[in-house]
Design brief:
Elements: E1 9-13, E2 23-28, H1 37-46, H2 48-57, E3 65-69, E4 77-82, H3 93-111, E5 115-118, H4 130-146, E6 153-158, H5 161-172
Parallel strand pairs: 1-6, 2-4, 2-5, 5-6
Antiparallel strand pairs: 3-4
Helix pairs in contact: 3-4, 4-5
The structure holds adenosine-5'-diphosphate.
């Protein structure tokens, strides 16, 4: 339906909270609390209204996504997705991670966000092996974009040289 999906995918090495996109995706915890890592950074940059909006929603299942406004961020929306904790691979972690990317993209479409940015979900505190997670991230996004032309731009915000190298190599495949 919509040509080469890679023409709509880019890599941004750096802090996702700085990005000027319609929506940024948060690697949230199931309670939607500020927490650490990228989630803590997003909450700090978005301000206390984000914390309150998340508390009102109350929680989200692993592999699912919900959205709020972006408040003090440049991004109009934050899409909160709950990545799986890595337990060795036999607890459906790969399917749950793919579901994070798919449900976030679906919500982006529903709310009319045409550009969005993802962090490397689950690859920090949640311990998902980076190369496997990167393969799932890139394949799931490519697949979605191939079937849909409502999303114009997907940015992978990569933190650190290792993540950047993993994404660059996966996108060359
Ligand atoms: P999880 O709990 O899902 O593993 P983390 O926040 O611990 O989430 O890590 C997810 C990824 O986000 C890691 O690769 C981490 O290096 C990266 N990260 C941390 N802070 C930021 C940030 N400000 N912008 C983009 N990526 C970030």
């Amino acid at each position: 339906m919509s040509g080469n999906p890679d023409s709509r995918i880019e890599i941004f090495p750096g802090d996702i909270t700085k990005l000027d996109v319609d929506a940024i995706v948060n690697a949230a915890n199931a309670q939607l609390r500020p927490g650490g890592g990228v989630c803590g950074a997003i909450h700090r940059a978005a301000g206390k209204n984000l914390r309150e909006a998340c508390a009102k929603i109350g929680g989200c299942d692993t592999g699912q996504s919900v959205h709020t406004d972006g408040y003090d961020l440049k991004a109009k929306y934050v899409i909160h997705t709950v990545g799986p904790v890595w337990h060795g691979g036999d607890r459906n972690e790969e399917a749950l991670l793919a579901s994070c990317y798919r449900t976030a993209l679906k919500i982006a479409k529903q709310i009319g966000a045409r550009s969005l940015a993802f962090p490397a979900i689950s690859t920090g505190i949640y311990g998902f092996p980076l190369d496997r997670a990167t393969g799932i991230a890139v394949a799931t996004v490519r697949d979605f974009l191939q079937q849909d032309d409502g999303i114009e731009r997907v940015v992978f915000s990569v933190f650190g040289p290792e993540a950047e190298a993993a994404y660059r190599s996966e996108l060359r495949r």
